[in-house]
Amino acid sequence: MAGAQPGVHALQLKRVSVPESLRTGDKFIKWDDTDLLDVSLIKDTRNGRFAKTPKEAKLRELLDVGTLEGKLEDRTLTVVSGADMVNITYLNFTAFSEEVAKEWAEELFSLASNLLAQNMSRESCLEKMYTRLMLQLTAEGGIPVKKWVKTANVKQIHLNMSVQMLSYSVFQYLPGAKIRPYLTVEQMTDFLNNRQRDPRLNEILYPPLKAEQVQGLVEKYEPDTMLSRRGQISVEGFSRYLSGEENSIIPPEKLDQSEDMTLPLSHYFINSSHNTYLTAGQLAGNSSVEMYRQVLLSGCRCIELDCWKGRTADEEPFITHGFTMTSEISFKEVIEAIAESAFKTSPFPVILSFENHVDSPKQQAKMAEYCRSIFGDALLTDPLEKYPVSEKQISTLSLSLSLSLTHTHTHTHTHTHTHKSVSLELLKESPVEFVEYNKLQLSRIYPKGTRVDSSNYMPQVFWNAGCQLVALNFQTIDLPMQLNLGIFEYNGKCGYRLKPEFMRRTDKQFDPFTQNTVDGIVAHTLSVKIISGQFLSDKRIGVYVEVEMFGLPVDTKRKAFKTKTSQCNAVNPVWDEDPVVFKRVVLPTLALLRIAVYEDNGKFIGHRIIPVCAIRPGYHYISLRNEKNQTLTVPSIFIYTEVKDYVPDTFADVIEALSNPILYVSLMEQRANQLAALTQEEGAQEADGEEVSEFNSSITAGLTNTVIHSSSVCAEDALFTPGSHDNTCVCVCVCVCVCVSEGDAQTVDELKQLKAYLREQKRQYKELKELMRKHNKKTSELINEHASKQKQLRSDFLRRRSRCEKLSELKEQQQQQLLALRQEQFYSEKYLKREHVKLVITPCVSR
């Protein structure tokens, strides 16, 4: 792929697999079933000292009865869930042994944090909805018939909509698909390699699919085994493939950790939080220790601690937003929460941004002691002896390398904090210098103090300048925060994204306000066509889709496209409109595509944010997500995308000829036939008289306008004959030598009667005629040669296509003959059995 790293990434993502111990179940103290918990809503699982045990003594005694092994907190499993980072709920389970509680805590968290599960396919979403219904039993333990029928109808409706939509939007482009309601392996292979394959991929590193591989897909998705054995896939099977995991809009390697993680911190965009402890506005509201856990679990790698001097007798420092009405939380509890949650979802360094207002040496010493004792070896207190650390050492040394207060590179130790307004002014005045500064130094940008409602600024502005720590208010899920969640969802969700190469190399300069292509970066052309929607809302309302792009100023297109509003149809709206084309995306590695769906009154339904450099071309279902970046189970849209390298308009014809040679050859043949009609020999003979008359008139005009001197005069007159094929120009030079005598000057008519003049005129006319004859002959030969080659190429192509059609007809004929033979056999057996029955019954009757 253009701009991609060399080599093929070895996928390390683990598929969703439930351990056998969780399948069979273990013994827990039982409560009555009340509700279902979606695993995707699980934020964390805790066991041991961080589990939430009951505070009431009577309840603790009840949980300790019987032959239970271990302490209560070690047998307790706390499941933390919630729709966002602020509104959190806790479910507590008590096991009969410590090992069972520990295993369930680890396995549940592994399932909840699985990246493939968080990016499940359309088919998996429908299966998930079906499973949820099957688990919702009635009071008698039965399945609600009403809900069962409703869900069954939904699945059938989805299949019918898919078949109708595919017949309309996809099958019409496939040769032969209109005639037969299925695709052969050859047609499927052609579709996958020409429609679904990224044209930017290297064919050596990423070879096109072969028929054997496509046959495996057919066997996987085709429900009719007879068709799959014959190498055919029906519309239903084709629809299942389009909604399956192999056809996701994002390739799995983009979700996996695939970027170089051995470079200095200044070479990465780092997921950062501002005033991490707040759960609401900046002036009032609660501060929460839990926010540190939730922010770290979401992938954030830079958090902020506003430390203030303790006023109580024990002089314990606390964290709050100074001089406001926000609540206070214990500094020690925050450090414990960070130590417990820092590396659950990412093994890479966490940066603590201390805003220290503690002026007491005693309390400062207490803060330092808490950090040393609680973090232990995880706290980096001295520069590393060896840099960089290899990726193999990260898993074993993450505790000793992870919490860094300074940059570890010897020349890039400065860490600058500026609020948004100051940084924006610096960016406008010195954009190139600001980018150069961020190549070696860490810049942390935070919201302006006037954002008391905890709203966020657009982080894309500062990503364009290479700022690493663009801190946002995680408690507010607005559009800027949605973009932040979207960009850090990739590269293993580790909280680090590698900056483009020209933002890291000191020998290259970059202007974020550039209007031209960037040296070393291939610009992209992106086309997005919104085809249809599925179950966007259960209301009888109209819906519409907006498409927009965020990136460099030259790439940003806010609300670039908006579909028409469907007429009271949110179940299966279809939009037959032209695609939106982003002609030139200068920096695709920093560009984000956002597709959002709204009700006709402007209410948000769902969206999806996708990096442009990760988009797969072709037909895809996109499962929508809510504003908190959580997958909506049912709503989705069906789109067609084209992604290719940008080609300027001046080279568009050349690229078109290379990409579609058959069309180019047919066009050349058409032009050759048109030229042949203009370059026939008969037409050339008829034009000879006109050529001679033009020749004579030109000579006459040249002689008439000649001033005769006592020396020789050379008059040149060029006769241009436009060629029919190559615009060849024939130039004839006439040299007239006139000797001036002392007598009277001769007139032009008298000069024309001279034998020398007539002889020269005749000779030149013969030369001109011979030259034109040779030219016409060569032109005809060249046209005939090209026509024969084109005819041969076309006949070869038609022969191969005819052979394929004959083979298909032969297969169809064989199938019909086999069917007729089977029918004949069936009726013969039926007739013979009837005769046998008659023979048996007749003797019995006679008796």
Automatic annotation (TrEMBL):
Domain PI-PLC Y-box per the UniProt entry, residue ranges: 420-504
Secretion signal, residue range per the UniProt entry: none
Keyword Coiled coil carried by entry: yes
Molecular function terms, GO-annotated: calcium ion binding; calmodulin binding; phosphatidylinositol-4,5-bisphosphate phospholipase C activity
SMART domains in the cross-refs: C2, PLCXc, PLCYc
UniProt-listed Gene3D superfamilies: 2.30.29.240, C2 domain, EF-hand, Phosphatidylinositol (PI) phosphodiesterase, Phospholipase C beta, distal C-terminal domain
Key word Coiled coil present: yes
UniProt entry keywords in alphabetical sequence: Calcium, Coiled coil, Hydrolase, Lipid degradation, Lipid metabolism, Phosphoprotein, Transducer
Catalytic reaction annotation: a 1,2-diacyl-sn-glycero-3-phospho-(1D-myo-inositol-4,5-bisphosphate) + H2O = 1D-myo-inositol 1,4,5-trisphosphate + a 1,2-diacyl-sn-glycerol + H(+); a 1,2-diacyl-sn-glycero-3-phospho-(1D-myo-inositol) + H2O = 1D-myo-inositol 1-phosphate + a 1,2-diacyl-sn-glycerol + H(+)
GO biological process, one term: phosphatidylinositol-mediated signaling
Organism: Cyprinus carpio (Common carp)
EC number: 3.1.4.11
Cellular component GO terms held in the UniProt record: cytoplasm; nuclear speck
Class of enzymatic activity (EC top level): hydrolase
Coiled coil (UniProt feature): 748-824
Cofactor: Ca(2+)
Protein name in the entry: Phosphoinositide phospholipase C
Domain (C2) ranges: 504-634
InterPro entries: C2_dom (IPR000008), C2_domain_sf (IPR035892), EF-hand-dom_pair (IPR011992), PI-PLC_fam (IPR001192), PLC-beta_C (IPR014815), PLC-beta_C_sf (IPR042531), PLC-beta_PH (IPR037862), PLC-like_Pdiesterase_TIM-brl (IPR017946)
